[in-house]
Structures are given as C-alpha cells and as structure tokens.
Amino acid sequence: MSISESPTRTSLASEYQQQDALGLAELVRRGDVSANELLEHAIKLAERLNPAINAIITPLYDHARAQIAQGLPQGPFTGVPFLMKDLISELAGTPISSGSNALRQYTSSNDSELTRRYKNTGVVIFGKTNTPEFGLMGVTEPKAFGPARNPWNTEHTPGGSSGGSAAAIAAGIVPMASGGDGGGSIRIPAACCGLFGLKPSRGRTPTGPYYSELWDGAAVEHVLTRSVRDSAAMLDAIAGPDSASPYPLEVRNDFLATSQQTVRPLKIGVSTRSFVGRPVAAEAVKAVEHSVELLQQLGHQVDEVDLQLDGEALADAYLTMYFGHVAADLDYVAQLLSSRPSNLDVELTTRTIGMLGKRISAGEFVSAKRRWNQFAQSMALFHQRYDLLLTPTLGDEPVALGAFEPPLLERIGMHIINGLGLHTLLLKSGMVKAMAMDNLEKLPFTQLANLTGAPAMSVPLYWTANGLPLGVQFMAPMGDEGTLLQLATQLEQAQPWLQRRPQLQEHQHG
C-alpha cells in the first residue's frame, strides 16, 4: 500500500514539501514512510521539475535504489533523498565531469572522504547537480550541460558554482544537497534561491584523499539547505580532519545543539559598500536595511562601519590564486586523461584563464598568498569590536542568464590571444583585471571569507520587487560557526522562510 492510500497517513506530496531533511528522517524512523517511498517520490519530482531548471545533470536512480536495498546506515538523515554537486567529492562508480566536456566520460574509482561521511548519515544519493566548468563562475552555465535555471524565475541564474544544488532545493526536489565554496559558491546560490547557505571555517570539513586543501585553503565543502538545523546537523556529521587535512581545527560536533541555544545580544557591524569599489544595487542595500531592522527588533546592536579594506589588493590576491589553480587543474586533467592541456575540450574562458595562470610566476603567487594574512588581521581587529559583520551577499539581484557571457569582441580577443600566445601582454595591459572586476561588481562581498578562512552564511530574509530572493551575509571570527547558527535559528523563527516556495512553471525549457 502506498502512503497516499493509507488512511492513517498524511499524503506524501504535502508532507514532503513541508518537512526539512531532519523532518523527513523522523518520518522514516517512526515508520510513517519508507526510504523507498521517499526516493520514488523525489525521482518523480525530479522527472517532472528538472526539465524546467536543468539542476540535475546525472540521474543515479538505480544507484540510490541499490543503496536502500543494501541497507542504510542509521544516521541523522537515514532515508532522505540527497543530491551531490558534480565537482570535487567523488562517488565510486559514477561520472564526475566537473561541468566540463573534457571529463564527461570520467568515472570515480573510489569515494572521497566527504562522500563517505555523507553516506554515513543515511542519505540516499540519487543524482549529481549542475555546476560551471571546474566551479569557476558565480553562475551555473556550463557549455557541456547548459544553464541551470532559478526556480523563482527561470530566465535568471540560480547562482554558482553550486547552482544546480540550489535550484533543486528551491524547486522542492530535495531539502538538502551538497555544495562547495571557494569564492562564495555556497552563499551565492543560497542568496539567489532563497536558501540557507553556510560556508564553514577553513579546515572544518575534510578534503581527502584526493586533495590536502582546496584552492590553497580558500575553498571548503558543506551543504545548502532549506532549514538552519539541517545545515548544523550535517556539519556535526561531516566535520573533523582526515588523513589529508593540513590545518585541522579543534574537533567539535555540537553544532546542532549549539544552534538551538538562545543567541546572546550581539554587536554587529554593517556595511553595504562594495569591497571592490563598484556600485551596489539599491535592492541589495534594501535587503540589508530590512535585516538591520529585524536584528534591532530582536535586541541586537547594529552599527554602520567602514572596513577600510584594500579592495584592489583583495581582488588581485583572489584572482592570482584563481588563475594559478585553473592552470594547475588543466595540467591535472590532461595528466588524468593522458593528454595535453592544449588538447582538452574546455571552454574558451577556462582555457584563457589557465594560460594566464601559466604566466604568473611562483614569486607573484606566493606574494599574493601572503596578502591573505593582511585581510585576516584586518578582520581580527574588526572582531575585537564586533561579533559579526553584516553585508549583502550579492551586489544585485540574481542576474539574467547569459549576463556573465563574454561579449563577442572579448571572445574574438581571447581566440587571438590564445592563438598567438599573448597572455603575458594581456596580463600587463590591465584588460584581464577590468573584465574580472566587471564580474566581481555583481559578487563583491563573498571572497573575503574565503581568503581569511572565516565562516560566513547567507540568510534568506529579503525578496526583491521582481520576486527574486536576495540573501544577506554574516561573517564571524575563525571557528565561530556556533554564533552564526544561533543567530540564523533566531532569524528563521522571527521570519520563517521554509514554506516560502516559487511557483515553478514545469517543462517550459524541456
């Protein structure tokens, strides 16, 4: 008998939409629904909704059914359908394309440590989600798979690089999915899709055995969720060093318990000034003003602050790391495929960035990395006066699809530069920085937490006049996810967002 036929059970369709991941796991534990029933319902939702949003690029339905048949571990999320971002975390026997045509045929031979920890929570992995090529963009529009679309308005981006995961959660296919954050890639899609997104502290979650650290420590993996408690409970389950961890934090697995304790009155500094000196849209400012009013009503002190950050140095340090790692990634992929970087089937922008990375000297890379400490020291001084920093998450509402696509002349220019090997000249011309700053104008607030290693979160407290979500960001001192989670729980209770859902027009882009 299916759940909808049982006179003693609520219909699965409505229950599935109302519950977060812990809520669904509780239904399984009580015997109100089985893991199989949840999975088949999630698959039906995916088949119905995914054509409109292109969030799931690799269905793993049989893999999920086999997981259940083999017996699920008893964990906090036993029986809950789960999606994995198609980047970094490897799942044995399944494709991991990293959003690239170059790796479309590549299959993981073993689970990564984080995947093993996800599986130990009892989640049922039934698909991989869309991501930009190698996770490089703040939008999810890979040439290999086509753009992921925002369920709130499918002509707009769900953000990146965890855009497929965010779109699937916002559409109601799953309550939780994996993501990673190297420059905002959890917080940006959370802000675009009306979700909760926590970037943990550097070293909080494992990166082994394939990596010791991601992007020199700028990147960290976790999940995107609808509820705060799901994020906290998953962090409890996956936190802690592994054999590859270079800088393990103090091991703690009490984030869920901490999140449910009453937050103390906080002193919060707020800034809506772009870190890179570009204009910030009125809607992004309004999102922060709305949050300030709510925070003050809840008894927190909020002061406007001037961070005195060197935005140009911040952008330079970030871009140097970014270019260098793309160059190294292309070398790694070429080695993996027994090929040469020049022969890889990668996007024009990726190829150009990789070639630019080759032109940066070891000395320039190390000098840029050393500047990360300056930003960490600036934030340490800030946190002597304030518990948290509040900013917009984005510089504007979620952009239209194609907004980050290079114009025709730039594409022609990249072809010429790649053909003639003029990358050193391009770097010296300042054109690269100008192009990068144009993109950072929309996303100027998130990279600071990546370079300093501090935890940060995007909280869905505001929707624009166009009906699009626009999250706000809070940054805490290194290692203090607890305060972020406590505040997020208070905000979630004061202005609930769990049941706020988009009206997705199905199949319009099938």
Commentary on this structure:
The strands form two sheets. Strands 4-6-5-10-11-9-7-8 form an eight-stranded mixed beta sheet, with helices on both faces. Helix 3 packs antiparallel against helix 4, helix 11 crosses helix 12 and helix 12 packs across helix 14. The chain contains 18 helices and eleven strands. The longest helix is centred in the middle third of the chain and has 26 residues. The N terminus is likely disordered. Strand 7, helix 10 and strand 8 form a beta-alpha-beta unit. It is globular and about 65 Å long. It has a domain of 264 residues: Amidase signature (AS) domain (Amidase signature (AS) enzymes), CATH 3.90.1300. The protein is of the alpha/beta class.
Topology readout:
Layout: H1 12-18, H2 21-30, H3 35-53, E1 56-59, H4 61-70, E2 81-85, H5 113-120, E3 124-129, H6 163-171, E4 176-181, H7 187-193, E5 196-199, E6 220-225, H8 228-238, H9 255-259, E7 267-270, H10 282-297, E8 301-304, H11 311-336, H12 348-358, H13 362-385, E9 388-392, H14 408-420, H15 423-429, H16 431-440, H17 447-452, E10 456-459, E11 472-475, H18 481-494
Parallel strand pairs: 2-3, 7-8, 7-9
Antiparallel strand pairs: 1-3, 4-6, 5-6, 5-10, 9-11, 10-11
Helix pairs in contact: 3-4, 3-6, 6-7, 11-12, 11-13, 12-14
Compact overview of the structure:
This is Amidase. With 510 residues, the chain is of the alpha/beta class.
Q: Classify the helix fraction into a percent range.
A: 40-55%
Q: Write the CATH architecture name of the domain at 10-263 and 485-494.
A: Alpha-Beta Complex
> What portion of residues belong to β-strands?
5-15%
First-to-last CA distance = 33 Å
Radius of gyration: 22 Å
Spatial shape:
globular
In spatial order, strands of the major sheet run: 4-6-5-10-11-9-7-8
Structural class: alpha/beta
**Number of DSSP helical runs:** 18
Mean pLDDT: 92
- Per DSSP E runs of 2 or more residues, the count of β-strands stands at 11
The CATH topology of the domain at 10-263 and 485-494 comes to: Amidase signature (AS) enzymes
Determine and state the CATH class of the domain at 10-263 and 485-494. Alpha Beta
The CATH H-level superfamily of the domain at 10-263 and 485-494 is Amidase signature (AS) domain
Which parts are unreliable, with pLDDT below 50 for 5 consecutive residues or more?
1-9
H and E string: HHHEHEHEHEHEEHHEHEHHHEHHHHEEH
Largest β-sheet summary: 8 strands, mixed
